[in-house]
Amino acid sequence: MRIAAHPEDETQRIASLKSIGLLDTPSDLYFDQLTAQAAHIFNTPICAVSIIDSKRQWFKSIYGLDVCETGRDEAFCSHVVHDHKLLEVRNALEHPDFHDNPLVIGAPNLRFYCGTPIHDTNGFCLGSFCVIDTKPRQFTEEQKELLNSFALQAEALIALHVRQKDNEEKNREIISSRDLLRRELARQSSLVSNAAAAVIRISHRGIIEDANKKAESLFGYSIDELVGQNISMLMPKDIAKHHDGYLKHYDRDKRQNATHNSSVIGEGREVSAISKSGELIPIHLAVSEVVIDDQSQNEFIGIVTDLRETKRKERELERQSMLLDKLHKGLTDYEALISGNSIWSFLQESLRELTNSEYALIGEVDPSKSEPELIVHSLTDLSWDKESKSLMQKFLAGSSRVTNTKSLLGRVFAQGEVVLTESPATAPGRRGLPDGHPPLHNLLGMPIKQGDKTLGMIAIANSESELNDELVNWLEPFVATCSLLIQLYRQMNERERFTAELEAAKDLIEDASRAKSEFLSSLRLYHCCMQ
């Protein structure tokens, strides 16, 4: 048995693997669905997402075997990591490197193996996406390309894992920092000028008496502009008008030893503040009452934490969760979606929802044509009269194609470019929109690829999201899923065509058999008559 040598970048590779926090994580539904789908499509009993650690092979997901890890020396995937390319072993018993491998001569009695590299976001090869059979086999080039597409899906899931881990760590850091500041500042009766949160000292009448530098940067006012003003200047109007009355009631209830229900003083809550520029800022506000023995009236210390970054991370997490849900549905329900001819509308509506866009398009390059032609499978209705409505119906029915390879869409499906513009009507090469056409404020087109081959394209227009490279990178897992689904769609169509041809051939054979029987019967009758 030949043991795979360590790759030249082994030290950096292991460090990167440890940093992403993937090893020994619990089973994941999305990874498990991916390996199950691959095993089903390739008709193999075993499929795995294999990660090569320093001394072991660990499975993030494995379908068909009840193991979580093996030794690195006997792992076929170690050779993939070393060679950085797809490895196919058609019959391990006859292979000089693997014929005496424990996994071959013993359980699970491996014979066929095909694995392709899986990389992390730093470009290091972590392991492989592999399928395994207990009998000899040989993959076609098309099957190898499809296996590469599954590996890209696994890489997309790993990238999403890294993003979620980073976001969770940052959120924990923000929450931890906020709690630490609140406890520390609650013990102080004076302003901490260098605090990481904005701190404002307020009189019992709600007048700002002092503030720190963070308050200046948060609200946009200088300290001189803040001091002497009512704190309500930093509140939205619907809250500011009730503030003075709130303080009066609080002071009255305190003098009467009555209970005052407050969700801010001593506890804190999330509210909104208004900056000098008019921006509405989400904040966490904790107000502590400072007891001053030699004064009849106490003061308040307000600790203000800027939640804009936290809220942005929360929205990003929600967005990532939505993306994962769409990818999961597309991968697990693809047979029902394709057979019901709803796969294209599902992808188009998902794309529009994920990007907050008014319009979206999903198209496939016709594989039967020598020159690129785009079949528009699903498009948001942007017709404005009967003529445009008729044209759109022709596109969706397949009787009309997009053939202009020099248009914005043509640059995507014919040349494989990513097209991003904030003025699609006046972009270079455009002659404006037809009269009555709905206005287009922005446009993003991305090719759907299988290796270097363009299978189709997606496009969005009038998106509320900012169109930039970050959005393009974020959509890569969605585009990779579209690539996989187009390949599966073509495979299912080819299978249906082949089945129909077999049925037709069967009918011809049966007709020929009946004709032969009738001829022989007639021949026998003729001989009888001649006698």
Could you characterize what this model shows?
- This protein is an alpha+beta fold and 531 residues long.
- It has three domains: 10-168, GAF domain (Beta-Lactamase, 2-Layer Sandwich); 188-311, PAS domain (Beta-Lactamase), CATH 3.30.450; 333-493, Beta-Lactamase, CATH 3.30.450.
- It has 14 helices and 16 strands.
- The strands form three sheets. Strands 3-2-1-6-5-4 form a six-stranded antiparallel β-sheet. It has a five-stranded antiparallel β-sheet with strand order 8-7-11-10-9.
- Strand 7 (198-202) and strand 8 (208-211) form a beta hairpin.
- Helix 5 (141-186) packs antiparallel against helix 9 and helix 9 (308-332) packs antiparallel against helix 11.
- Residues 255-260 have low confidence and may be disordered.
- Rg (CA only): 33 Å
Tell me the CATH topology of the largest domain: Beta-Lactamase
Count of helices? 14
Inertia-based shape: extended
Strand order of the biggest β-sheet: 3-2-1-6-5-4
Q: Structural class, from secondary structure content? A: alpha+beta
Short description:
The chain is of the alpha+beta class. It has three domains: 10-168, GAF domain (Beta-Lactamase); 188-311, 2-Layer Sandwich (Beta-Lactamase); 333-493, Beta-Lactamase (2-Layer Sandwich).
Write the layout of secondary structure elements.
Layout: H1 10-19, H2 29-42, E1 46-52, E2 56-63, E3 69-71, H3 77-83, E4 87-89, H4 102-105, E5 112-119, E6 125-133, H5 141-186, E7 198-202, E8 208-211, H6 213-219, H7 223-226, H8 237-255, E9 269-274, E10 280-290, E11 299-306, H9 308-332, H10 334-339, H11 343-355, E12 357-365, E13 374-379, H12 386-397, H13 408-413, E14 419-421, E15 443-450, E16 453-463, H14 469-530
Antiparallel strand pairs: 1-2, 1-6, 2-3, 4-5, 5-6, 7-8, 7-11, 9-10, 10-11, 12-13, 12-16, 14-15, 15-16
